[in-house]
Amino acid sequence: MPKIYEYLGIILFFYSNEHEPIHVHARKGEFESKAEIIIQGGLIKEIILTNVKGKKPLKGSDLNSLKEFLEIYSEKVVSKWVDYFVYNKEISFEKITRKL
């Protein structure tokens, strides 16, 4: 389970056995949501936030913080996903402690 970012206490990560579409999980405490990143023609067209079966979803300010983070970092998330799952590269972890 590679962790890729921590943003204001929200951990963003991939499960090791992921599948397409490209997506990232976000967890804070007992809450977890998933963000699917939809790509068409090489460009990010949409980010769809969904619930994770068996988990309570992020809500309130944590959900808003996740949305704000993904607006800025979605291309970097996609790059890390491709590096990890397609090229089998090690990926780095980054902790962001200030609001974007």
Task: Walk me through the structure.
The protein has 100 residues and is of the alpha+beta class. It has one domain (3-89). It has one helix spanning 60-85; strands at 3-7, 10-13, 23-28, 31-40, 43-51, 94-96. Strands 5-4-3-2-1-6 form a six-stranded mixed sheet, covered by helices on one side. Strand 3 and strand 4 form a beta hairpin.
In short:
The protein contains one helix and six strands; from the N terminus they run βββββαβ.
| Continuous helix count | 1
- Spatial gap, N to C terminus: 25 Å
Shape: globular
Instruction: Note the run of SSEs as H and E.
Output: EEEEEHE
Radius of gyration of CA atoms, rounded to a whole number: 13 Å
- Overall structural class, as computed from helix and strand content, comes to alpha+beta
| Beta-strand percentage range | 35-45%
Strand order of the largest sheet: 5-4-3-2-1-6
Low-confidence stretches: none
Largest sheet: 6 strands, mixed
* Total domain count: 1
Average of the residue pLDDT scores: 95
Fraction of residues in H or I helices:
25-40%
How many E strands?
6
Name its key features.
100 residues, 26% helix, globular, 6-stranded mixed β-sheet
Helix and strand layout, with pairings?
Elements lengths: L2 E5 L2 E4 L9 E6 L2 E10 L2 E9 L8 H26 L8 E3 L4
Parallel strand pairs: 1-6
Antiparallel strand pairs: 1-2, 2-3, 3-4, 4-5
